[in-house]
What we know:
Elements: E1 12-15, H1 27-39, E2 44-47, E3 72-75, H2 78-81
Parallel strand pairs: 1-2, 2-3
Amino acid sequence: MESLIDEHTAAIVVTNPSNPCGSVFSRAHIQQILAVAERNCIPIIADEVYEHMTFSGVEFCSFASQSKNVPILTCSSLAKRFL
């Protein structure tokens, strides 16, 4: 991912959990993405709309809960929470 960053990169956009397959990033994977963002001084836009819709036994971990050094804009949805 880091090799794709250049002077035109404004942010890293992540979708976690993903839709439609429902995969959820592990805490370690989130920390790896955060390390890339921090090294390159790039903010993260985290689409976490499906945070409350994961498979049983799968732990969701938000990007914002894992970083104090990287600016993170978290997008969620009140309507999705009550489906």
